[in-house]
User: Fold this.
Amino acid sequence: MRQFRNLGRISGRSARWALGLAVLMIGLGALAPAARANDVDNTIVLSGGTNFFGAVHTDDFDFIDTFTFTIDGAVSANVSLVTIGEGASNIDFLSADLNGFALTLGPNGFFESGFLGNTDLTGPLVLTVTGRSGATGGTFASYSGTINVTIIPEPSTALLMGLGLGGLAFASRRAHA
Assistant:
């Protein structure tokens, strides 16, 4: 029984080590960066047409969201963003660009939007949205958007299509003659 008597006790040396370790952990915690907005980094595979994207933020820090749309070759694209909210569910857009082309942003307020008209680009497409979320206390702030992509045919494809249409027109004319 004597051997089990000291199990519940901590020696002076062990107590000092435990206290030192606790102080070190608290100190390291104080040096850690503050909580940051949940920056979005999303990759979406495109084949053309209309595609949707969006982000939800859970804290009130600035954010940088990056959406990479994987598509190869030349495309014509337009994009729009929208958020509706106030207070804790508010998003303020600070900037947005698609492959370096800036979106036109509406004024900050209850309803905010951004857009970029048809622009010829080469894939992949990278949309970067920076802003500030008002989310606090379990309330989420979000925005959504659409990107419309039309694939631009390569010159050789357009030439072959033109020759094919020309051949059809010639054959049609010859059949009527």
